[in-house]
Each structure stands twice: as structure tokens, then as C-alpha cells.
Amino acid sequence: MPDDVKRVHDDLIGCDQCPRLRKYCERITFVKRRAYRDQVYWGKPVPSFGDPHARLLIIGLAPAAHGGNRTGRIFTGDRSGDFLFRALHRAGFANQSESRYRGDGLKLKDAYITAALHCAPPQNKPARIELDRCRSYLVRELRLLTRLQAVMVLGKIAFDEYLKTAIRMGWITQRRGLQFRHGARYVLEQSEAGPWPRLFASYHPSQQNTQTGRLTTAMFDKVFIAIRNELSSRT
Description:
Layout: H1 3-13, H2 19-28, E1 49-50, E2 56-60, H3 68-71, H4 79-90, E3 111-115, H5 128-144, E4 150-154, H6 156-168, E5 185-186, E6 198-202, H7 207-212, H8 217-233
Parallel strand pairs: 2-3, 2-4, 4-6
Antiparallel strand pairs: 1-3, 5-6
Helix pairs in contact: 1-5, 4-8, 5-6
């Protein structure tokens, strides 16, 4: 891992800007889910992971209380992650179709996963100020991921946070016409420093979405096919 990316991860793990989130995540390490009562929970802000030379960036909402907050890796050890990693494997971005714990052999190829928030929020509902505080880490990562050609956002919160970050970085001046919907694909404004990565939107692979059929395997795969086509066209 390049030193600059590792520095972002180290800073993130030590972050204590949001007392409510820190208190909640630390409490969960003691009030464990019965199935994991013999495990040691991570309990700290959860860093991003993946290929630092990736062309695809995936942005989720936040670690799950008994998923990433337990394992120390985003989307690892929960049902949302199961759905995501199977899709990543089918699309050729992951070497295996499941992720249970850090050090389980999972490697991402040409993909990097981050989140709008790096601490598990109570009831999966982050406060506005908490998202605002965490945005600086996404800014730093986007500046370091210099080969990006596509950004996939999972859910409306991730979509909104990415656009706020793009405005902050000067990639776009406003979000007029950019509305969240599953399967949406947008070309952001270009400048002398562009072109910027194409934006792809998907429903979040939460249990609520996948078990109700709001997000199906075929729907999810279709977004990844569009991303693969985009990357192939820009090779």
C-alpha cells in the first residue's frame, strides 16, 4: 500500500471527531451479538480498502455495527457485504465471493471500497455534522486515487455525499440535473484537469432492499456490466 494511502487510513482509525459515534461503536464491542460473543470487536473507525491503483471506486454508507465495526473491514461480515462481494467476484473485481474477516484472503482487483461515514451510526442514521466531518477523508482519497475512471455509489446518502465532495474539489459547480436513481449514469463537468470519473448509482445492497426485491442480483449485475463497459471503452 502506498505510504500516502496508509497515512489516510492511520489518521482515520485514530479519528475521534464524533463523540456520539465513538461512544456507540465502543459500547457495541461489549454488547455483542450472541453469534459473535467470543470474538473481539474492532470498535474503531473502519478504514477503506482495496487496490490503490483502482479505476473503480465504490462508496457505501457506513460500517455495520456487527459487520465492519466487528471485523475492521467495510462490508465484511454482514449480509450487505455478502451481496456486494458476490457481485464483485462475478464482475472480476474480487478474487473470492465472500469476506468474513480481515486476513481471509480477499483481494480487490482494480477496485477500492470506501464509505460516506467510517463509524457505525446508531440505527444506521448518521447525523449531518458527522457526515460533514468524515468528508475530508473522502477528499484525501480522491486526490490519491489518480487512476479512477468510475465511481459507484450505493444508496442516496452516498450519492449526495459524493456530489458534495465533487463540488468541494471543484469537479462540478452544482448538482443540477443529478438525481439519485438506481442504474443512473452521469458524466460530470470536465475541465482542463478532467475528465472526471463517470458516476454510477445503485440501490444499497442492504437486507431491506435485497430481501424485498427492490434490488435484485440481475439489477446489481447490470450496473457492474455498465461499469465494465465504461472501463473497457477508456482503456
